Amino acid sequence: EAGVAQSPRYKIIEKRQSVAFWCNPISGHATLYWYQQILGQGPKLLIQFQNNGVVDDSQLPKDRFSAERLKGVDSTLKIQPAKLEDSAVYLCASSQTGAGDQPQHFGDGTRLSIL
Amino acid sequence: GNSVTQMEGPVTLSEEAFLTINCTYTATGYPSLFWYVQYPGEGLQLLLKATKADDKGSNKGFEATYRKETTSFHLEKGSVQVSDSAVYFCALSPTGNQFYFGTGTSLTVIP
After folding, report:
1. Phi, psi at A93, each rounded to 5°
2. CB contact under 8 A, B44 and A43
3. How far does A61 lie from chain B, in Å, by closest CA?
4. Which residue in the set B51, B98, B104 is minimally distant from A101, CB to CB?
5. Spatial distance between the Cα atoms of B111 and B97, rounded to a whole number of angstroms
6. Which candidate from A6, A42, A95 shows the least CB-CB separation from B103?
7. CB-CB contact of A65 with A82 (8 Å)
8. Distance CA A104, CA B6 (A)
């Protein structure tokens, strides 16, 4: 089966600019996650969708970050305006139903550098 | 609360050496436990999992046993190869749907 697809792979922007990332989960997976992985750290959950509804966005900096999954399939994550501390790899993951015993399948990530 | 603590790296081993990466957790309820591996420039890949106490997950020569009494899920491999060089993440998922990841342990295997 095709894995989780993310684009772009790399993005370099200046602070205060905006940026968007795209994710296409594994076909049929109801649950989609966006993580932020800062260099040398483990992934930190930003937002979790179940189909097209938000399950958890408690760690999403809502003043600058937004995400949507309009048709319950693809998702976009946006940052506007970007800050230096947003430099990180943004990982998208999906799982079949989101149950606790199911693994999450990750994309290769988007590496964001803020100048 | 829920959290995962991994041994700090980096870890450097010679090929065919024995590997242990320690992982302990704090969780409410009865979580599922996972090990993920991340190769350079790639996303995380599931290595193995265990969903209840005393379960042993295994894959590609790696093993980990879910120890409820010591709240641990240590990763082991009897004979590492150069191709095992990567960052390893321990993770837990409580009875719910959020994952909590450790900070990762970098492993370098030298020929």
Report:
1. -140, 160
2. yes
3. 18
4. B51
5. 40
6. A42
7. no
8. 20
3 state SS of A72: coil
**For residues A50 and A106, is the Cβ–Cβ distance under 8 A?**
no
Q: Which of B33-44 are b and which e, b meaning 16 or more Cβ less than 10 Å from the residue's Cβ? A: bbbbbbeeeebb
Q: Tell me how far apart the alpha carbons of residues A76 and A110 are, in angstroms, rounded to a whole number.
A: 12
Q: Which residues of A touch B41 (CB under 8 A)?
A: 108
Sign of CA dihedral A52, A54, A60, A66: positive
Distance, C-alpha A48 to centroid of its chain: 9
Contacts of residue A95 in chain B, CB cutoff 8 Å? Answer: 97
Q: How far apart are CA A21 and CA A105, in angstroms?
A: 17
Bridge partners of B37, per DSSP, are B45, B88
Who among B46, B98, B101 is closest to A103 (CB)?
Answer: B46
Per-residue pLDDT of chain B (111 residues), as tens digits, is 889 999 888 999 999 999 999 999 999 878 999 999 999 888 899 999 999 999 999 999 999 999 999 999 999 999 999 999 999 999 998 866 678 899 999 999 999
Q: What is the radius of gyration, based on Cα positions, of chain A?
A: 13
Question: A18 to chain B nearest CA, in Å?
Answer: 24
Q: Which amino acid belongs to residue B64?
A: A
Phi/psi of residue B32, each to 5°? -90, 150
What span, in angstroms and rounded, lies between the C-alpha atoms of B19 and B5? 17
